[in-house]
Every structure is written in C-alpha cells, then in structure tokens.
Amino acid sequence: MVAKTRKKAKAGYMISAVAEIYKLHPQTLRLYERVGLLKPSRSQGNTRLYTDEDLERLEVILNLTRELGVNLAGIEIILNMRDKMSQMQSQMEAFTHFVRNEMARNFNTTDQLKSRNAIIRTVPRQAIRVQK
Hints:
The chain is mainly alpha-helical. It has a domain at about 1-70: Orthogonal Bundle (Multidrug-efflux Transporter Regulator, Chain: A, Domain 2). Helix content is about 65%, strand content about 5%. The protein is built from 5 helices and 3 strands. A hairpin with a 5-residue loop joins strand 2 and strand 3. The longest helix has about 45 residues, at about 70-115. The termini are far apart.
C-alpha cells in the first residue's frame, strides 16, 4: 500500500508524511540529514521535500539500522561504497559498450578493405585449431 501512495506524488513528500509512512520521529529524519545520510530538497518555504530516490535511500538506511544493527558511521561507509560501486558499474558498462563498438567497426572496416582489393571475393575463413 505504501508503494501505491509513493507512485502518485511527483514533487516530493513532506517530513511529516515520510515520518508517518516509515513510523519514524521527524527528528530522526532531521538527524539523518544532519549527518549527511539524506539530502532532501527544499521548497521555496524551506520545507524538506523527499523524492522517491530519497525514500529508496531511507529504506536502505532503515534496513541497515533495524535489521542489521548498523550504526550511523557504518551506514555512511556502506552508502558511500554503494554509490562508488554504482559509478564503477556505469563506467564499466560505458567502457564495454565503447570496446564492442570499436571492435565491430574495426572488423567491418578490415573485412571491407580485404574484400574490395581481392581478385576473387570470398568469405573470410575461420582458423581451426587442431590439438594433438
């Protein structure tokens, strides 16, 4: 039921709504912000507005504290590591995409040049390794 409520809001959730949904005291959310675990945006009236991404991060924080007993310093380390791992994953995916494109481009270019200059055009053969 919580997920349905979250999907409808677009601008953000006020601190009282988030506290009620997750059964927290608003001071706990303020503490998480003060120590840097959460960074909600602010409205023109300086009201904290929590986005869906903030709520996902809060769910991770609550899981770490409630289920695993991790303290705030440990949570900070874990969240920083998760962020770095996500960045590395994105970089690896971009690098893999780049390498695949470069390899495909080079193979196609090489095959086309060989084919253009050949007296008789043939399909390139694959080498077969025979083991003794």
